[in-house]
Amino acid sequence: MRAATIVEGRIEVEDRPDPVPGDGEVLISVRAAGINGADLAQRAGRYPPPAGATDVPGLECAGEIADGRRVMALLSGGGQAELAVAHETHLLPVSDGMGWDEAGGFVEVFATAHDALFTQAELSAGERLLVNGAAGGVGVAAVQLGLAAGATVTASARHHHDALRALGADTDVDGEYDVILELVGGENLTTNLGRLALRGRISVIGTGAGSRAEIEFGYLTRKRGRIHGSTLRSRTVEEKAQVMAALGAFMAEHAFHVPVEETFPLERTEDAYERFRAGNKFGKIVVCP
Ligand SMILES: NC(=O)c1ccc[n+]([C@@H]2O[C@H](COP(=O)([O-])OP(=O)(O)OC[C@H]3O[C@@H](n4cnc5c(N)ncnc54)[C@H](OP(=O)(O)O)[C@@H]3O)[C@@H](O)[C@H]2O)c1
Q: Which end of the chain has the lower number of beta carbons within 10 A, N or C?
């Protein structure tokens, strides 16, 4: 098969042996695969794949499996290739109206956002959610998930305010929040504390703008607040299955849209990474074998 391969800090698309599914796994003929920040970190040598995972990058893909089903899959690697292997409990069906490009960029960001908002931060209907870094993949997922759950959603982003308002978010960030989803990090980690409502929760998922900040603990105690962090990739097969089951149940009742900023053929995966790195995109960058 053809597969994205990291060679001295660049992506080259090379011939690799076809992956072989193990117990409980399926082989996916990949139609589309999303790019994520973790892929860029892996390309730079800063985020090695977990033990036992392929070194082919790609945490999410969509395609067909042997019985003809159209699926999208959460992966610990290997999505940016013609063939990928996924655990059968890490699959979701691709709905009829969803294109391959949207499906290829769905799972990693929606699973991350769903787990952070509902399982960890316990967001509920009527609460106020602030999403920092809302125009990226996880952000547009979180905005839609929060609205679907009946929260009021405010989106903080440097660009794409009209598109975020079109999704249903407010873009005026003044106010207090029950849940803050942090996808940027850096100084936000300090200012978030001043924006917490009583019993507010801060969920830290991304720290691309910096992972150190000075924290005024007084805000946290006065607001009886909570800060927690999370990663998805390193979880066990069973833990990821729980995340996917919760997301699948939510999807059965709601329809979501994945804004795709640009798609690239697999052979141009390096260009896709560079487009991701350039920023100022709305939603996802996707490669299509
Ligand atoms: N913990 C986990 O399991 C997990 C899972 C998935 C993702 N992540 C992390 O979560 C973060 C978001 O993921 P993503 O897929 O949504 O990434 P993404 O598509 O690149 O989106 C990131 C967003 O943050 C904005 N941003 C970046 N630096 C900023 C800064 N200094 N100030 C203000 N805004 C800034 C970007 O805006 P611009 O376009 O203006 O730069 C972009 O809209 C990444 O750090 C990613 O690595 C973690």
A: N
